[in-house]
Amino acid sequence: MTIQTRLKIAAATSAALVFILALLLYWSQHRLASANRTKNLADEIVSSVFERKALTSGYLVDGDLQARDRWLLKQNHINDLLEKAPSHLISISDGETFNDIRKSLEGSSAIFDRISHNREAAKEGAGHQVMVNEIEDRLVGQMLVKFLDTVAHAHRLQLAANELIASTQRTAEWVSLSIIVSVSLFLIIVAWSLGRSIGQGIESLQLGSAAIGEGDLHYKIPLTGDDEFANVARAFNMMSGKLVESRAGLEQELMARRRAGLEIEQLNLELNLTVSQLQGANQELEAFAYSVSHDLRAPLRAMGSFSAALVEDFGDRLEEEARDYLDEIVIGSRHMGQLIDGLLTLSRSTRGELHSDLVDLTLMAHHIQNELAQSEPERGMQWQVDPGLITRGDARMIEVVMNNLLGNAWKYTAGTAQAKIRIYAEQDGDERYFCVADNGAGFDMAHAGKLFQPFQRLHRQDEFPGIGIGLATVQRIVHRHGGKIQGAGEPRKGAIFRFSLPHGKKSSQEES
């Protein structure tokens, strides 16, 4: 049984006992009122009987006719008192007493009438005076007996009323005391029972909480039943079971993480070793490329020089086809020299310390614009360079990026009517991109994967000369700065190259 149900039962039982006590008090008060009314009526009857006796003496001794009339009135008053006595307020014995009083009063009234008639007859001379006196003496004696009977009955009624009052009071006291004692005992028992249940429940929950707090997740609270504490205990035990499962899962996860940590540590060691090996390999490769590039220059120069000397000294003796072969050798050696220079540039773009300079791309673009215009003054070009293009990075490397991008835009707009080059910036989400756009030859996006690969070109050599190393160099420099580079184009409609640098936002704030 739940504690809430016990409290409801205790409250209902207490209310019922209090209601019974109220009914008892009402009954006792009603009975006391009835007994008091009976006693008051008996007292008034006794008083009226004694007054009537005095009036009887006044009439019999003094012959006072007013006393006789008042006697008759008092008799009627006593009859009215008897008639007014409600039967439901009187016990059976009290009713018999009232009947005895009524009979005594009726007998007294009849005797008083006979005395009165006897005296009237004596005044009229209807009988002998001695006989009249004897009759009156006998009637007076009978009347005295009736008076004594009436007083005795009235006293008996008074005693019965007093006894009823006393018994009612005793009964009310005993029943009230019994109910109070019963209610007190009941409340004490209920309070003890509830206190015991609550105390045991709280103690068990405290022990369980302490055990869980100390780490004993297998502890179970030994509470059974249907009360609230038992329900809490079941929930607590279920929670501890879930905690055991969770701890087991956490322990497994921790073990797995430890294993993963050890594996990651091992992988990091291997990765560091691999990085060290790669760095060493890159350094060796860069040194090899630099050395090879320098070492190839001497034979290339010798090949070119001897080919030129051969043409100069023996050109008139050579056939036309042989002279063409020599020209191709010179062109090939010159192209190979350009490739070597590109390899050196590409190698230098990934070497050296990266600086963080405040770079004005607008000013840099104007310098490059002037150099390109001086190299081909006959070309007409429309330039649009946005102001305020400020960023941070290695100024030397960013200049290489701008030279390559603007140089490509200048090269691939050759032969384009109303050629146009634009340098500007745009925001794409959190990234700020610097863009170089032209309306030149463009390229097919199907071959965009070759854009940033070394020595890969999207145009023929006879259309636009080059070695295919510029965009690869640009990509490496941008990636070293932590940025991105993208290219988009369309044949004969131009191309757009845009790149981001990691400190673009900071530079904008510094500029402002």
Helix and strand topology:
Elements: H1 3-62, H2 65-84, H3 92-123, H4 129-213, H5 228-314, H6 320-349, E1 357-360, H7 361-375, E2 382-385, E3 390-393, H8 395-412, E4 420-428, E5 431-438, H9 470-480, E6 485-490, E7 494-500, H10 504-511
Parallel strand pairs: 2-4
Antiparallel strand pairs: 1-3, 4-5, 5-7, 6-7
Notable features of this structure?
Heat Shock Protein 90; de novo design (two linked rop proteins); alpha+beta; 512 residues; disordered C terminus; two-stranded antiparallel ribbon
Question: TL;DR?
Answer:
The chain is of the alpha+beta class and 512 residues long.
Can you describe what's shown?
Strand 6 and strand 7 form a beta hairpin. Among the domains are: 3-199, de novo design (two linked rop proteins) (Up-down Bundle), CATH 1.20.1440; 354-511, Heat Shock Protein 90 (2-Layer Sandwich), CATH 3.30.565. Helix content is 71%, strand content 8%. Helix 1 (3-62) packs antiparallel against helix 2 (65-84), helix 5 runs antiparallel to helix 6 (320-349) and helix 7 crosses helix 8 (395-412). The protein is built from ten helices and seven strands. The model is unreliable at 504-512 (pLDDT under 50). The longest helix has 87 residues, at 228-314. With 512 residues, the chain is of the alpha+beta class. Strands 2-4-5-7-6 form a five-stranded mixed β-sheet, with helices on one face. The chain has a two-stranded antiparallel ribbon with strand order 1-3.
What is the rounded Rg?
A: 68 Å
Report the count of strand segments.
7
Order of helices and strands: HHHHHHEHEEHEEHEEH
Summarize the amount of helix as a percent range: over 70%
**Gap between N and C termini:** 78 Å
Percent of residues in beta strands? 5-15%
Spans of at least 5 consecutive residues with low confidence: 504-512
Q: Counting H and I runs of at least 4 residues, what is the number of helices?
A: 10
Query: How do the strands line up in the largest sheet?
Result: 2-4-5-7-6
Largest sheet, if any? Answer: 5 strands, mixed
CATH level-1 class of the domain at 3-199: Mainly Alpha
Average pLDDT? 77
User: Globular, elongated, flat, extended or rod-shaped: what is the shape?
Assistant: rod-shaped
CATH topology tier name of the domain at 3-199? de novo design (two linked rop proteins)
Question: Which architecture name of the domain at 3-199 does CATH use?
Answer: Up-down Bundle
Determine the structural class based on helices, strands and strand pairing: alpha+beta
